[in-house]
Amino acid sequence: MLQIRLEKPEDIRQVRAVNEHAFGQSLEADLVDGLRKNCPDALSVVAEKGGRITGHLLLSPVLISDVHQTVHGMGLGPMAVRPAYQRRGIGSELIGYGLNILAERRCPFVIVLGHPDYYPRFGFEPAGRYGLRSQWSDVPDEAFMILILDRSALQGVSGVVVYRGEFTEAL
Ligand SMILES: CC(C)(COP(=O)(O)OP(=O)(O)OC[C@H]1O[C@@H](n2cnc3c(N)ncnc32)[C@H](O)[C@@H]1OP(=O)(O)O)[C@@H](O)C(=O)NCCC(=O)NCCS
User: Fold this and answer.
1) Antiparallel, parallel or unpaired: β 144-148 and 70-81
2) Which of 100, 122, 127, 149 could cross-link with 132 by S-S, CB 3.0 to 4.6 Å?
3) CA–CA separation, 81 vs 85, rounded Å?
């Protein structure tokens, strides 16, 4: 049976392989390893079936700083599902599990940089609607999305959403 749960230390080797296979390169696997090591607030979720890790999702802190305040949220991704297991709903289950945890923790918003046909089904909408921009100038507007979990926390907040430095180093 497929189980969605938080990553355990013994999963780390397989999580790396899942990312390498799904992306066909090691950049995302290195990024995941770096964030796990440096960022205690990063959240790593896995899909496991019979001891085999088939999917992985990382969530890590982001922040929006404007002249008045800094608001902390989370960024979704990278996410990876082993190619042989894709399009069976595993990615959706990883996202649902991760978003539930963030809602329980009262995280006010979640940012994703991803495909505009995929993420709206989870409630994501273009972040530009709220005056929010990516720190990377080459990100298309429609790919930069936000899921707002607490509207009051974002009242009057706009500007650049900043990911952890590991992302800029990796990209
Ligand atoms: C993206 C990914 C994690 C999705 O996992 P998954 O388990 O296949 O996702 P699900 O089965 O929950 O959802 C599949 C749906 O997502 C859509 N989808 C998935 N990736 C997509 C993409 N890159 N572009 C457009 N649609 C995509 C599929 O069309 C499908 O839609 P449908 O349900 O309407 O047919 C997986 O395809 C993957 O590992 N891709 C390579 C790595 C990657 O690009 N990661 C995302 C960027 S961080």
Assistant:
1) unpaired
2) 127
3) 6
Q: What angle do CA 81, 103, 22 make, to 5 degrees?
A: 10
Q: Which of 45, 86, 93, 163 to mutate to test the pocket of ligand 1 (most atoms within 8 A of CB)?
A: 86
Q: Give the Cα-Cα-Cα angle 114, 115, 117 (nearest 5 degrees).
A: 145
**Tokens, residue 4:** 């969605």
Decide: 75 in ligand 1 pocket, CB within 6 A.
no
Which atom of ligand 1 approaches the CA of 87 most closely?
A: 11
Domain ranges of the chain: 2-170
Under DSSP, the state recorded for 128 is G
Tens digits of per-residue pLDDT, 6-39? 999 999 999 999 999 999 999 999 999 999 999 9
Say how far apart CA 52 and CA 50 lie, in whole Å.
6
Quote the tokens at residue 12. Answer: 């780390």
What's the CATH number for 2-170? 3.40.630.30
pLDDT at 65: 85
H/E element holding 102? Answer: helix 90-104
